[in-house]
Specification:
The chain is an alpha+beta fold. 29% of the residues lie in helices and 28% in strands. Bound molecules: adenosine monophosphate (AMP) and glycine.
């Protein structure tokens, strides 16, 4: 079968790498893709949000399955677009419909969902410009640090954690009244601060059945020791060593099961990945967010550990027969180290030639922000490439990733050298 992946990051390169191992795949397309996907699939230079252009490609290339990488097209309703089009409605789309994608598109909606289904999460209240005074009064009843969240999609920047009450009140006003995050902060969720260590749990569902996939931990800050600005993710480790079987059982019964059952009860059609962001508070999981897609760079460590034929798994998702699939997981640890452009997550230059890739041995290199320029691989984004390795434990796997990262070079390349420091 011919398959199209939407997206252009490390997540999509990893999906492409995994799908090309399937004997069921005939031809793979990635839109728009990067230099890594160009080497194993055909890149199509169209935007993930240009549904009409996607339709043309699907029909002209005889594509029968579309896998949606990022959240944007899902929140914009790409799955619904397919279902509502007479020529496209039989095409399998992996990714939830718009109503369910609101779990990521609106934090307020996600909180209400968790309340309704008794899923453990931080206590909260939501406010709008009309209720700014009530919001500021609510802040006074809380202890620092104060957590303010823009309701809508804000490119990963919409969460503020503030130590000072007066600053929190000012920021609340900036978000609600001065549209600090545009329409994304028309509503703001104020929630209780959760003190604990973070991890992510990945679930694949066909809307009826589900499979729990490996856990992962992402390193979001640019600086060593988890300092400095937030990034898209500087590296990841899977499995998370502190996620014991007992803790995983709690995640399963308290979070995963009620989430999937809640989707069914609320009539939120979902065929795709659920990425559950958790904080371990004491011995208990609490949900901090839902994402309606795989994480990046979590995908770069989660997918290599899955031993199944991914085309077969996705077919089962499309046909709602996921109960007939047994997911097989490699029990080794996988780690990935993200190399980034100097200056990222602030301003950075693009077009730097990347060398040394041919010297990498014993690791997988997944391209994130790269492109081809006269047959040369050059940088084309903040996060440039992720180097994934396996090991008996995370230290061994990381040592391998770092050994290979050091063979790769581009002007002003940066990466975190302390992944796993907190484990
Ligand atoms: P989110 O966009 O919801 O993932 O939030 C971004 C980051 O803010 C998370 O990865 C956490 O590190 C942090 N965060 C979000 N909510 C809370 C909370 N209630 N308590 C503590 N940290 C939080
Ligand atoms: N690595 C975090 C994310 O994909 O949202």
């Amino acid at each position: 079968m011919n398959i199209l992946i939407l997206g252009s990051g490390g997540r999509e390169h990893t999906l492409a790498w995994k799908l090309t191992q399937s004997p069921k795949l005939t031809k793979l397309f990635v839109a728009p893709g990067n230099a890594g996907t160009a080497a194993i699939a055909k890149n199509i230079p169209i935007s993930v949000n240009d549904f009409e252009a996607i339709k043309k490609v699907v029909l002209s290339e005889g594509i029968s399955m579309v896998i949606v990488g990022p959240e944007d097209p899902l929140v914009n309703g790409v799955h619904d677009f397919f279902l509502n089009d007479i020529d496209l409605k039989k095409i399998a789309v992996i990714g939830p419909q718009k109503a369910a994608a609101t779990l990521e598109g609106s934090k307020d909606f996600a909180k209400e969902f968790m309340m309704r289904h008794n899923i453990p999460t931080a206590a909260y209240k939501s406010f709008k410009a009309e209720t700014l005074t009530e919001g500021q009064a609510f802040l006074e009843t809380l202890q620092a640090p104060y957590v303010l969240k823009a309701d809508g999609l804000a490119a990963g920047k919409g969460v503020l954690i503030l130590q000072d009450l007066e600053e929190a009140k000012k920021e609340l006003s900036a978000m609600l009244v001065d549209s600090k995050f545009g329409t994304a902060s028309t509503t703001v969720v104020i929630e209780e601060f959760l003190d604990g260590i973070e991890l992510s749990c990945f679930v694949l569902t066909d809307g009826k059945n589900y499979k729990v996939l490996p856990t992962a931990k992402d390193y979001k800050r640019i600086g060593e020791g988890d300092t400095g600005l937030n990034t898209g993710g500087m590296g990841a480790i899977s499995p998370v060593p502190f996620a014991s079987q007992e803790f995983m059982d709690k995640i399963h019964t308290q979070v995963v099961k009620p989430t999937v059952n809640g989707l069914v009860k609320d009539n939120l059609p979902y065929k795709g990945f659920i990425f559950i962001g958790l904080i371990k508070v004491g011995d208990n999981p609490k949900v901090i967010e839902y994402n309606v897609r795989l994480g990046d760079p979590e995908t770069e460590v989660v997918l290599p550990r899955i031993q199944n034929d991914l085309v077969e798994v996705f077919q089962a998702v499309a046909n709602q027969t996921l109960d007939q699939i047994e997911i097989k997981i490699d029990d080794r640890t996988a780690t990935t180290v993200m190399t980034v452009s100097g200056g990222y997550p602030g301003g950075y230059e693009k077009g730097k030639e990347i060398t040394g890739l041919e010297k990498v041995e014993g690791s997988l290199v997944f391209h994130a922000g790269t492109t081809l320029e006269d047959d040369k691989v050059v940088t084309n984004g903040g996060r440039v490439m992720a180097v994934t390795s396996f090991g008996a434990n995370f230290k061994e796997a990381l040592a391998k990733s770092y050994e290979n990262v050091e063979k790769i070079h581009f002007d002003k390349m940066n990466y975190r050298k302390d992944l796993g420091f907190d484990l």
